[in-house]
Write a structure and sequence with these properties.
Elements: E1 2-5, E2 15-20, E3 27-28, E4 33-38, E5 43-47, E6 52-57, E7 64-65, E8 70-75, H1 78-83, H2 102-114, H3 123-134, H4 150-159, H5 177-188, H6 220-235, E9 238-246, H7 248-260, H8 270-284, E10 290-292, E11 299-301, E12 307-309, E13 311-313, E14 316-318, E15 321-322, H9 330-345, E16 359-363, E17 382-386, E18 390-395, E19 400-413, H10 419-434
Parallel strand pairs: 12-16, 16-17
Antiparallel strand pairs: 1-8, 2-4, 2-7, 3-6, 4-5, 6-8, 9-19, 10-11, 12-15, 13-14, 17-19, 18-19
Helix pairs in contact: 8-9, 8-10
Bound molecules: oxidized coenzyme A.
Length: 441
């Protein structure tokens, strides 16, 4: 049994494993990417130094590992034994770290095709060379270099795609094969989708020149949110409409109901009332319950009413979807929201429970604030933000009276919804919340 080991990385300190492409039972080819290491300076994709079947993984994501450390046990297969038989005499020359430079890569490719395959015992000696010739290394000082493996670079070259233009979806901004394919697909449809596939890159800045800093890796949820929000801001021309709603009576009713349902353990908050009223508004204003088709040529109008609710969790923001809100009572919505929010925070949500939303609600009312501008999450065309309700003096025609006012922030996709329509939507929502009896009409 042989082991795959980390080749000599020079003086580099142990680096963190951020991605593992192989698992026990997999058959790997020599030079196939196996794991990705990330140190402060560079991200290194480590290729298999020999072919064979992975018997056991010796590491996991998050482990730190350095030059010479074994990370998998590998056994030879019939194919790998045949492939390991010497074919040419010439050994590959020592190569420099790969940059996103065609000439340099061509040279590397040439070296690979003439290289004599190593026997497993020799793997350790030749591994440094293999890493240098076949990995992509991105130093943090550079914004021009891209992070992609050799197969992806080859595909990009074949398709004539400049990798700098390709938005990455892999871990830590790594460009994957699918990204290149998507980029080409999007570019072909570029007439109708001018922004597709074009995500400007933020320049890399060395903040340590201004003072000491530390680094905190973003978890998957935060990275996905960051990407989705950036895309949403790029794609959707958004406007936010603000409204103050008098919920004094709703609040009295809510408190009464809380007394009434206390023994059943049901506790009403403002959010389920808003969701119920919002569901009715989505039926009243079908354009708010639509999505723009990908080519921007038509609206897809939905006949179901599913509402996403942003839930603040220790790992980041998640948006579970409550289905068919229009068909549910406020009590049912309350129970479902409590249960879903709880499971969201415990990371127990299934993917399907986060899909199929028509419009979202983001409530910061339990925390504070007078207004904010929530970001529409395409393909949805609107999102409703709730801020903290507070007692305010309201003129009733004769005098100022204290009323409980709830601030609403309705952000909408201006490609689909006009300002006047948003104002009408907001007014309607206001009328439902100010007097719940309107919901019965
Ligand atoms: N005004 C005043 N008080 C409010 C309020 C509002 N708009 N909304 C909620 N409250 C009160 C509730 O009534 C409750 O008070 P009591 O315990 O005294 O009854 C308290 O605030 C806490 O409510 P809650 O947050 O537990 O429950 P909720 O139903 O209002 O909200 C949920 C549920 C899941 C939306 C919420 O817990 C949450 O995660 N909010 C954060 C969403 C978020 O991060 N959005 C930002 C997205 S953009 O980055």
């Amino acid at each position: 049994m042989n082991t795959l080991i980390i080749p000599d990385m020079g003086n580099a300190e142990p680096a963190e494993i951020i991605e593992i492409f192989i698992a026990a039972g997999d058959t790997v080819e020599q030079e196939q990417s196996t794991i990705v290491l990330e140190s402060e300076k560079a991200t290194i994709e480590v290729p298999a130094t020999s072919s064979g079947k992975i018997e056991k993984l010796l590491v996991k994501v998050g482990d730190k590992i350095g030059s010479g450390d074994a990370y998998a046990e590998i056994s030879a297969t019939e194919e790998s034994k045949k492939a390991a038989e010497p074919k040419t005499e010439q050994k590959a020359e020592e190569a420099k770290p790969v940059k996103d430079d065609k000439a340099e890569e061509d040279k590397t490719a040439e070296a690979k095709t003439t290289a004599k395959p190593e026997q497993p015992e020799q793997v350790q000696e030749s591994a440094a060379q293999t890493v240098k010739t076949n990995t992509s290394i991105e130093l943090s000082e550079s914004s021009e270099k891209v992070y992609a493996g050799p197969a992806v670079r080859k595909l990009a070259r074949e398709l004539g795609v400049s990798l700098e233009q390709v938005p990455a979806t892999g871990l830590r901004g790594r460009i994957q094969k699918e990204d290149v394919q998507d980029y080409v697909k999007n570019s072909l449809q570029a007439d109708n989708r001018p922004l597709a596939g074009v995500m400007p890159q933020q320049p890399e800045i060395d903040f340590s020149q201004f003072g000491s800093v530390s680094r905190e890796p973003l978890n998957n949820i935060k990275r996905a949110t960051a990407k989705a929000m950036s895309l949403a801001n790029l794609l959707v021309p958004q406007v936010t409409h603000f409204e103050l709603v008098d919920i004094t009576e709703l609040e009295d009713f809510r408190k009464q109901q809380n007394q009434h349902y206390k023994e059943q353990g049901i506790k009403f908050t403002i959010v389920p009332f808003v969701m119920k009223a919002l569901a009715q508004c989505l039926l009243d204003f079908p354009r708010f319950n639509s999505s723009l088709s990908a080519d921007g040529e038509e609206l897809i109008l939905k006949e179901y009413v599913n509402i996403g609710v942003a839930v603040d969790t220790p790992k980041g923001l998640l948006v579970p979807v409550i289905k068919d809100v229009n068909q549910k009572s406020i009590t049912q919505i309350t129970q479902e929201l409590q249960d879903t929010a709880e499971r969201t925070r415990q990371n127990k949500l299934s993917l399907t429970e986060m899909q199929g939303g028509c419009m979202s609600v983001s409530s910061l009312g339990g925390i504070g604030g007078t207004a904010f501008t929530p970001i529409v999450n395409p393909p949805e065309v609107a999102i409703l933000g709730l801020s903290k309700a507070s007692i305010q003096p309201v003129w009733n025609g004769q005098e100022f009276v204290p009323r409980l006012m709830l601030p609403l922030s309705l952000s909408y996709d201006h490609r689909v919804v006009d300002g006047a329509e948003a104002a009408r939507f907001s007014q309607k929502l206001q009328s439902y919340l100010q007097d719940l009896r309107h919901l019965l009409m």
